[in-house]
């Protein structure tokens, strides 16, 4: 089953994950840049490293 979202506009980005998140947030009236999203993820995963949790999905 395919579900379409009305008035959703796609755009190119610099990274697949940050671009997808940016588009969804923008659609829901939370304008944020890919760079800001990337920075937030970097901070979150940097803080998790001392806990022994590593994530290698964002390069």
Topology, element by element:
Blueprint: H1 16-27, H2 34-48
What does this molecule look like?
With 59 residues, this protein is mostly helical. It has a domain at 16-50. It is 46% helix and 0% strand. It has two helices and no strands. Helix 1 (16-27) crosses helix 2. The longest helix is centred in the C-terminal third of the chain and has 15 residues, at 34-48. The radius of gyration is 14 Å and the shape is elongated. The N and C termini lie far apart (33 Å). The model has no long low-confidence stretch (mean pLDDT 80).
Describe the structure concisely for a colleague.
By secondary structure, the chain is an all-alpha fold.
Helix content: 40-55%
| Proportion in β-strands | under 5%
Mean pLDDT: 80
User: What would you report as the Rg, rounded to the nearest angstrom?
Assistant: 14 Å
**How would you sum up the global shape?**
elongated
Class derived from helix and strand content: mainly alpha
């Amino acid at each position: 089953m395919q579900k379409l979202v009305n008035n959703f506009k796609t755009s190119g980005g610099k990274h697949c994950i940050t671009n997808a998140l940016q588009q969804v947030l923008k659609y829901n009236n939370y304008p944020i840049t890919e760079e800001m999203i990337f920075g937030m993820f970097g901070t979150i995963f940097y803080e998790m490293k001392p806990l022994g949790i590593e994530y290698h999905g964002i390069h």
